[in-house]
Amino acid sequence: MAEVTNGKSSITRLAHDHVFYILHLLPVESILCFSMTCKRFRAISSSDGFWQSICRRDLGSSSVDDLVASYEAECRKIHWKKLYQQVLQFESVLCARLAGKDGISPRPRASHSLNCVSNCLVLFGGGCEGGRHLDDTWIAHAESGFQHVLLWQKINSGVPTGRFGQSCNVIGDRLVLFGGINDSGMRQNDTWIGNVICDDKQEINLSWRLLNVGPNAPPPRGAHAGCCVGEKMVIHGGIGLDGSRLNDSWLLDLRDDGRSATWHEIVTLVSSPARSGHTLTWIGGNLVILFGGRGNGYEVHNDLWLFNIGGEYPEWAKLICDTANVPDAVPDPRVGHSATLILGGQVLICGGEDSQMHRKDDFWVLDPSVIPAIKTRSHVLNFKRSSRKMWKRMKVEGHLPSRRSFHRACANQSGHCVYISGGMVDGVTQPTEALGLGFDGDAYLVKLLL
């Protein structure tokens, strides 16, 4: 207990900077409780400077810097405590269609890759009409999207070789691409590094290089899922050489400043069922979230798995929450959706299609902070918190993107905005096109309304 002298606890006599430091170590719920103990603590914990430091702690300094620049450009003043609450409680997104300057933009495609690295959008490959693959790389300054125009530049073709259904993730200031399927149906298992180069004239370029990974590599596949985990990359599942779906997991460890790397399989006692067209999203530390996808029986899932790749024994755990009394509490089953880590450590889910190829145009946000930690070697995590707190369906303002699947999405550096590109959309059914499939070339900017 704190020492009491002359009716005052010793903690109340701490210097201002000491109290500030202590509060800065606490979770937000504890800060709010602490602030109710006396007027002095309430004043310190309500100050704008204190909440700016909490925003930097929890949202990241680079995200906060980008938000400051955005607010200054709009001549808006930031109230930091209110901003923190808005990030965690926002309920709407604003969508805007992005035009290509002078009508120049990548051709319609799906199952390509789209990433934001060094403040640049990089688009590669994908599939297009006729079942053909593409081998082109396009690049644009991400900031230009705020003016609803993208200045796309076609960088090169042929390297890497054409493919669709590859994974491509950002590690540091590099792109790491793995696998995919070409238009002959051949699965790949090569690994490529992409480096973005910006010169003093603000001109941008990108070079691809085949990465030396040694003799051990994942079996060839496409339509798998992948994400970065700090300075490493993890992949899972996909469609293998014989057309069956996989449930294995592999980790890529870069070495020598990205000049070489090694793959090793992550062996677990239990894994999520085999699938393709699902998503993996890093949510911090050693934790990855898996959502959705298509199984070996062509069933489409909306299950949620937590993958802890750290420690001596990596493990999967299925997340189960009772939704019997909460209608429309979770997203419908889907495959070919996107899942993007956004501001506040939340995950934005967009689109996809169900088992009947009915495409979707909805947006959902998953809050990983309500997911219980794996404290025991349990492969199922049941928790009683309302799934409505874990999942929120977003209201949409502006130009709603058409229903689509196998599009691609990525967030800007702050996580405040998400870019969406391409995908499969409902086309005009012709006698030779029984399914009425169409490829889309549109790009959209999705902004969190805070």
UniProtKB/TrEMBL annotation:
Keyword Endoplasmic reticulum tagged: no
Sections of the chain in a coiled coil: none
Signal peptide per UniProt: none
Keyword entries, A-Z: Kelch repeat
Keyword match NADP: no
F-box domain sequence ranges: 8-54
InterPro entries cross-referenced by the UniProt entry: F-box-like_dom_sf, F-box_dom, Kelch-typ_b-propeller
Top-level taxonomic group: Eukaryota
PANTHER family xrefs: BACTERIOOPSIN TRANSCRIPTIONAL ACTIVATOR
Designated name of the protein: F-box domain-containing protein
Gene source species: Aristolochia fimbriata
